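Narrative progress, year one. The postdoctoral researcher (J.K.) led the effort to move from monomer predictions toward full complexes, under supervision of the PI. The following entry was the first complex the group processed end to end, covering 615 residues in total.
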Amino acid sequence: MISYILRRLLYLLPVCIGILLVTFLIKAAIPTDAVSMLYSGQLTEETSAEAEAIIRAEFHLDQPALVQFFYYVTDILRGDLGVSVRTREPVIDLIGYRYLNTLKLAFASLAIGVILGVGTGIISAYYKDTFFDVTAMTVSLFGLSMPAFFLGILLILFFCVELRWLPVIGDGSWKHLLLPSLNLGLILSASLARITRSSMLEVLDLEYIRTARAKGLNERLVVFKHALKNALLPVITIIGLQIGGLLGGAFIIENVFAWHGIGELAVKAIIWRDFTITQGIILISAATYVLANLVVDILYQVIDPRVRLAG
Amino acid sequence: MKTKTSQANTLPQLEPQTRPAASQTRRILRHLLRKRSAQIGGVIFLTLIFMALFGPLVIPYDPFDIHVEQRLQPPSLQHIFGTDEQGRDLFSRIIFGARYALQIMLITTVIGAAGGLLLGLPSAYFGGAADMLVMRLMDVMLGFPYILLILAIVAIIGPSLENAMIAIGVAGIPSFARLARSAILVVKEQDFVTAERALGGGNTRIMFRTVLPNILSPIIVYISLTMPTAVLAAAALSFVGLGAQPPMPEWGAMLVNARDFMVTAPWVVLAPGLTIFVVTLGINLFGNALRDVLDPRDTTSQKS
């Protein structure tokens, strides 16, 4: 087990280096734009060249790429994400509370999505080809085709404008969290329901289930005790992969609900060409995703002994 | 015909196909067109293509023409989908926007599939250090969540519709490369590839003429399954202001300003939103049917 975790960590090394390289590229590619965005229209050609030179020096952009990369990596290892090009605030301060907000949103969505999706999938498989199943699978296909932000707008129209149950723009309270997490949770549940259903149906076809049925066991017991255990294994892997989708989804959805997370800031930073903020956010999100997958992989080992033997 | 079908189903990998036989293509098409989901999806997709190609010829109004006195008109006989905050006819703008949707699908797919194949084919075929390197590179890209990778690329090359398409396409490369690689690893050990080599076929020839046609069906299925994702990603990017910019009648971009009017004039939001939804649904339906027909081994096939 421990050797597996060590091996898995070792395997992460190239991925981490790659992530650093990609985020580093963000800096290398857009410094000139950053200056022109910063002082758009306020500078003459002469002063703008001067401003650019100053900012380039401030962010080590006048150095060779390798030296820059060295600065970048050593800064990050010291926990320093730099300062915003635009406001000179430390990036870590800008991101900190927003990161927690995004995590809050992601976890709430994950809970809603898993309960709704896995639940629907199991019932759909149990009542295969009935009205419930057909409806659920049709709705889930709709969910897969629905732009998440459009669903968000519809939710606002329905709950805030039509019913007046919830505030449109919130303050970070649970009431404000409800709609965005419902939004992402619904989208997540669409794919989870389909995967759970097909995984369940596949397991229900296996010999040991036939044996259990032949023994005359209660059908409900067979489905919910014997089949469910095995059917949920692939679902856990998919949930791990969906954490990425959830993070990405949060980046878009935060903009619909004015939820102050890193996604909302990232979009602004990209438009402002504030590369240190963008770098920091992308780095921290990618790290979160890698970490989440590591946890899922280890969990998987704990749950399924067969994987442990094979791995 | 019957024997051929059953043979194709039981031994799908062993049948060498230097080029897809006409009869087989016809068989697949016949199977496909019998499915309701393929019919609905196909009609939606053909409508989209028609709108993209001939839309500008049939639209009732200029999609860019501003008529302030006509602003925020509800749907009527004159303006089927109503008008937006500047009095532009939404129906005309939606139809005109079809060309962007089609462009997005084509360009992102070509970049993703071609990039993935060009990396995955030689990598899997030759193996060794190059294979290692390419696959580690793909691992790094997959180390980012999909939308995040797209955002990172957009941050590097700058926000615009063209760059959004490039970013979405590039973000799709690693999955295509992996898919191609795993399919090729199976195919390249098959007898007909060995035979081709014994006959003196060069590597390039074997790769592109012998191996490639035999991995096409999973690739095609995967294309049909990633296209909806690409459309949704492009719309999302435009929506947050990192893709197509507002005066452009791209459907995602049409929703940017529409949000301010959604309470008083919900049709401004509903028209582009529902259009994206219907088009994505159509491709999803078609893709699911295509997978069921082309990939009968896939036990996870879902009904739709």
